[in-house]
Write a structure and sequence with these properties.
318 residues, alpha/beta, Rossmann fold
C-alpha cells in the first residue's frame, strides 16, 4: 500500500487485460496528469464508479480483491493517488497537496470520458470525495462514503479520544515503534508492526484482521523503504491541508450538496459511528447504513451487507 516503483511496459498510456475463460479480469492503464503518471485499474460492467482509497498513505491494493466483488454490477475505476503505490515514479510526496489530489481525480474522470461518475471513497477517500463533490457537483452522480474519516476537526478529536481509549497501554507500544530508527527509515517490518497495533480494534473478527494485515505487509514489502517514506510525506502534506487547518469543517458546506449519498459504517468501526452520522445528517437526503458486527473495512468484513445497501441505494436514487 505504499509507494513502490512498478513501471508498466510503456512510458506513455498503456493498457493490458487478462481473461480466464469468459471471465474478464482487470485492465491496467497509466493516466498522465500534471507532473505524474497515475496507475489505474478498471474492472466490471455497469454504472461507472471511481474508487478512492484511504490512508492517505495507502494505495488501492488493500481494497483488493474484496471490493472487486461489485464488478458484476459496476464498472470500477481504481487509481493509486499521486506518490502512492504505483503512482510514485518521479513524484515527491511533499509536493502532493489537496489541490493536486482534486486535479488528479478530475483528470482521471476526464481520461475515462465520465461525465458524472459515482465516487466511492473509503476512509480518507471519503473526505477526498466530499472535497471534490463540493467543488464539482455536476461531475458526481452519486456518493458512496464507506467508513468515512472525520469531516471536521471536532469529529477528528472525537475519533482520537476513542482511539486512545481503545488502545490503552498498547498506545505506548505503538509510540515505541514510531520512535525506532527502523520505522523512521521506512523498514517494511517496522511499518507493518505499527499498523498491527493501529488497526488492532478496527475490525470485528480476528480472521479479517489477519487477512488485512497480511495484505498490508505484502504491500509494504513490495514498495520498500523509499516508497513508504514518499507516501508518508504525502500523508503529512495532506493533513496540513485538511485536519491541521484551524477550524477545518466540511459539515456546514455539505448542506449545499444535492447529490444522492449513501454513508456506510460499522458498529464495530474504530472511528465512532457519530462521525458517519454527522456526514449523513449534513447532506440533504443522505442515507446512513450502520452494519452490525462490522468494523472499518466493511467491503472486506461484511460484503453481503455492503452489496445489499448499495443495491438498495441505486434503486432509490433513480
Amino acid at each position: 500500500m505504499r509507494t513502490g516503483v512498478v513501471v508498466l511496459a510503456l512510458a506513455t498510456l498503456a493498457s493490458s487485460s487478462v481473461e480466464t475463460g469468459r471471465e474478464r479480469r482487470a485492465t491496467e492503464i497509466r493516466v498522465q496528469v500534471a507532473g505524474a503518471s497515475l496507475y489505474a485499474r478498471t474492472i466490471g460492467h455497469g454504472p461507472d464508479v471511481i474508487v478512492l482509497h484511504g490512508g492517505p498513505d495507502f494505495d488501492q491494493a488493500y481494497l483488493l480483491p474484496d471490493l472487486d466483488r461489485l464488478q458484476d454490477s459496476f464498472h470500477l475505476v481504481y487509481y493509486d493517488q499521486r506518490a502512492r503505490g504505483r503512482s510514485a515514479a518521479h513524484v515527491r510526496g511533499e509536493d502532493v497537496t489537496l489541490a493536486s489530489e482534486l486535479d488528479d481525480l478530475d483528470r482521471v474522470r476526464e481520461h475515462f470520458h465520465l461525465q458524472a461518475p459515482v465516487l466511492l471513497g473509503h476512509s480518507w477517500g471519503a473526505v477526498l470525495a466530499l472535497e471534490y463533490a463540493l467543488r464539482h457537483p455536476a461531475h458526481v452522480s452519486r456518493l458512496i462514503l464507506m467508513n468515512p474519516a472525520p469531516a471536521s476537526v471536532d469529529d477528528l478529536a472525537m475519533f482520537r479520544k476513542a482511539y486512545l481509549d481503545a488502545l490503552g497501554p498498547d498506545m505506548d507500544r505503538q509510540r515505541e515503534i514510531l520512535e525506532t530508527p527502523a520505522y523512521k527509515e521506512g523498514v517494511p517490518d517496522a511499518v507493518a508492526a505499527r499498523y498491527r497495533i493501529h488497526f488492532e480494534h478496527a475490525l470485528a473478527r480476528p480472521a479479517d484482521y489477519e487477512k488485512l494485515m497480511a495484505t498490508m505487509k505484502a504491500g509494504f514489502v513490495r514498495q520498500g523503504k523509499a516508497g513508504i517514506l514518499e507516501a508518508r510525506a504525502a500523508e503529512e502534506r495532506l493533513m496540513r491541508d485538511t485536519w491541521s487547518v484551524p477550524g477545518y469543517d466540511l459539515l456546514p458546506k455539505l448542506q449545499a450538496l444535492r447529490i444522492p449519498t449513501l454513508v456506510i459504517t460499522g458498529n464495530r468501526d474504530f472511528i465512532p459511528v457519530d462521525t458517519a452520522a454527522h456526514i449523513a445528517q449534513a447532506i440533504p437526503g443522505a442515507t446512513l447504513t450502520t452494519l452490525d458486527n462490522c468494523g472499518h473495512f466493511a467491503y472486506l468484513e461484511c460484503p453481503g451487507s455492503v452489496r445489499t445497501a448499495v443495491t438498495a441505494f441505486f434503486r432509490r436514487a433513480r
